[in-house]
Write a structure and sequence with these properties.
Blueprint lengths: L2 H5 L12 H12 L1 H9 L21 H28 L4 H33 L4 H14 L1 H5 L3 H19 L10 H9 L1 H25 L5 H6 L2 H17 L3 H7 L4 H17 L5 H26 L5 H28 L6 H25 L1 H8 L36
Helix pairs in contact: 2-4, 2-15, 2-16, 3-4, 3-16, 3-17, 4-8, 4-12, 4-15, 5-6, 5-8, 5-16, 5-18, 8-12, 9-13, 10-12, 10-15, 14-15, 16-17, 17-18
Length: 419
């Protein structure tokens, strides 16, 4: 399976027309990791310890809410895109061959970042609290005792490989499903009763997240193995969103409705988001997750409609961003942690410093991604792709969904070991 073949996968089912807005949405969601993580670095903590993995020793109001807003829709939208791409590609690829490509495209960068980038990231985090000697001692201790310390922002690759493996095995053992579409009558009903459909769907997802995650914690599984390394709780949370994307790829009428702006859904997105920001800290974990799911689905639909209207065709700027967005995400978090440490002596308000760190991170990540794209060894290690052929560049591999990072659950006493 060539990269050019994979790039051809993101075409609307039943037509030869490429849907550029899905590519652009994936790239946007990846790049949003930069403001999200910078906001986490400068948020005000809850008084129980440092606010995030790197200690900025300064904070300002508003950054926690800004990070929470991005987190509301970013992760769910990521996995909707992932499921959408997987469903389209598996309609025309041999499942196990496609899965082997996923392990190469995701697994190689995972191992490379785990071994080469994340130790540097963790060193910056330790230096934000200790002098050089104690920082190395703490680095060695945490590296030997904490699985989450190694995984950091790479957790989504683990979860994504779970989902890719599951859907590939399903289509391999049930090949008749590869060309199946959602029943026409049900597809039409969902499109005609879109508001009701969205409300029921969001409620089901919210109940699933509330019950499954609390059951995971109640079972005592929030430990180094199941949670920090295997990320089973994240798999429970985002499985429904991946499934939504899979179904959307097989429901042409529903998909067209998703591409249209809806004033009621937009107003619902605003209302649920405001409620989550205003009352989320005062709700229990289950109620908070349910409210967040309502906000997430509404915000995701608004984002899908926005991208489908703004990005109607390819252009060189978005094409370049799409091509390097995966590498940008992989390198941006180590860059942020070192910039936060380096910026501490600068005497300026956090409201000015944080945007400067964001801009510097984007610029450095952009040039790092360009370097990765041009050096064959780096391209394989940090983008999972073999060197480009001499005769023309292939379309970007859009089958790789974005890689977000999880914000601390502000309603739960548990602190997942996540960036």
């Amino acid at each position: 399976m060539t990269e050019r073949d994979e790039g051809e996968g993101v075409k609307q089912a039943g037509t030869g027309q490429r849907e550029h807005h899905w590519d652009a949405m994936r790239a946007l969601l990846m790049v949003l990791g930069i403001p999200y993580h910078v906001a986490l670095a400068y948020q005000i903590g809850d008084g129980t310890g440092q606010a995030w993995i790197v200690n900025a020793h300064e904070s300002a109001r508003g950054f926690a809410s800004f990070a929470h807003f991005i987190h509301l829709f970013r992760m769910p939208a990521f996995f909707i895109v992932a499921g959408y791409f997987a469903s389209l590609l598996l309609a025309r690829r041999k499942p196990m061959l496609w899965l082997r490509g996923r392990f190469q495209r995701l697994g190689i960068p995972f191992l490379a970042c785990l071994l080469l980038l994340n130790p540097l990231l963790n060193l910056a985090c330790e230096l934000s609290n200790f002098a050089l000697g104690p920082a190395f001692a703490s680095l060695l201790h945490n590296s030997a005792t904490s699985g989450g310390y190694w995984i950091r922002h790479l957790w989504f690759l683990i979860v994504l490989l779970y989902f890719c493996t599951a859907v590939a095995l399903l289509f391999n053992f049930a090949p008749h499903l590869r060309g199946k579409m959602l029943p026409r009558r049900f597809d039409r009903w969902c499109a005609r009763h879109f508001m009701l459909f969205m409300l029921v769907l969001a409620s089901l997802v919210g109940m699933w997240e509330a019950v499954s995650v609390e059951a995971f914690y109640a079972a005592g599984l929030a430990t180094n193995g199941p949670q920090q390394i295997m990320r089973l709780d994240q798999a429970l949370i985002y499985a429904p969103w991946f499934l939504i994307g899979c179904v959307a790829a097989r429901a042409p009428l529903l998909r067209k409705r998703l591409y249209r702006f809806s004033m009621p859904i937009t107003l619902a997105a605003i209302a649920f988001t405001v409620a989550s920001l205003a009352f989320g800290d005062h709700l229990g974990p289950m109620a908070g997750r349910f409210l967040d799911a309502l906000a997430a689905l509404a915000l995701a639909q608004v984002l899908i409609a926005l991208c489908s209207h703004v990005v109607r065709r390819a252009n060189p700027v978005t094409d370049r961003l799409i091509d390097v967005s995966f590498a940008i995400y992989l390198v941006h978090l180590p860059i942020i942690t070192w910039l936060v440490v380096a910026a501490r002596p600068l005497a300026m308000p956090v409201a000015m410093k944080a945007p400067l760190v964001m801009m510097a991170t984007f610029i450095l990540s952009w040039f790092a991604a360009l370097l990765i794209a041009r050096v064959p060894v780096l391209r394989l290690l940090f983008d999972g792709r073999k060197p480009l052929p001499e005769t023309g560049a292939p379309a970007p591999d859009v089958a790789i969904p974005p890689s977000p990072a999880l914000c601390r659950d502000r309603r739960s006493g548990l602190r997942p070991s996540l960036p």
